[in-house]
User: Fold this.
Amino acid sequence: MAWLVTGGAGYIGSHVVRAFLAEGIDVVVIDDLSSGHAAFVPDGVPFVQGSILDAALLRRTFAESSVPITGVVHVAGFKYAGVSVQRPMHTYEQNVSATVTLLQAMHEAGVENIVFSSSAAVYGTPSTDLVTESTAKSPESPYGETKLIGEWLLRDQGIATGLRHTSLRYFNVVGSGDPELRDTSPHNLFPLIFDALVDGRTPRINGNDYNTPDGTCVRDYIHVADLAISHVAAAQRMEAGEPIEAVYNLGSGDGVSVGQIMSTVATVTGIAFEPTLAPRRAGDPDRIVASGDHAARDLKWQMRHTLEEMVQSAWTARNQASTRSE
Assistant:
């Protein structure tokens, strides 16, 4: 058997690919390289460059794979919540229309398993500081809306065709499981901090008057390699015909503050700095942390890395990339 990883040349997708290979499971990657990197795809892994909006390409990928594809991990998508407000139609095309095209191609090919990359953005600003899978969904951006619609598409296709599916709701994904792989997003916290330090600028904290121990926002930060392991566990559970929930939160149950991250970065990098203080952003809640109990029960989910290890792995990957570019 083989699993197709859409977006498998991206930061998260490339870690998922390696987690499958570590379990001896064949993988096929499809990615349009709009935010991914061909160098992130391991040697020997079949790589199809193109968009999952291309139905003909998807049909060929399923039909021509040397190892039959029995499931899909759907990581591809437009993942920038803030930018999605300015580009709603692009976001819907990439995240909703593309998922429809993928599900149709899967059905035509007889592929009946899918693990979907969803997001904590489906919750918006929750009224509780410990989020569970049953917490009310109230997305506040086109990005969050498209992820929730993606979950609905899987649900409805499951009812119609028997598709086996689960959606994994990510919180803040950080770190690196391989020095060759790093987060290159221009919008995520770790790259923003590292870019500032490398450029000689001071990282910024938005607000220090929240109702938290150090006054800065508390959020869930999870290591990308731990996330990847749970994708493989979900795939294996489906292949074995074992029961699986429709959705899982991949959360720490605890969380760390932005202030803690800044001080840890200073320690790990050896670059002493005091963050610049900016006004708090409207709508930012004091604390959002998710319970990962269901995923721990079913998907081998656990926090295997300390905050320092998360920062160190990300910093090492960033430095290695800088060395290669010199």
Q: What stands out?
A: Residues 189-220+252-288+304-325 form a domain with the UDP-galactose 4-epimerase; domain 1 fold (CATH 3.90.25.10). The first helix runs from residue 11 to 22. The mean pLDDT is 95.
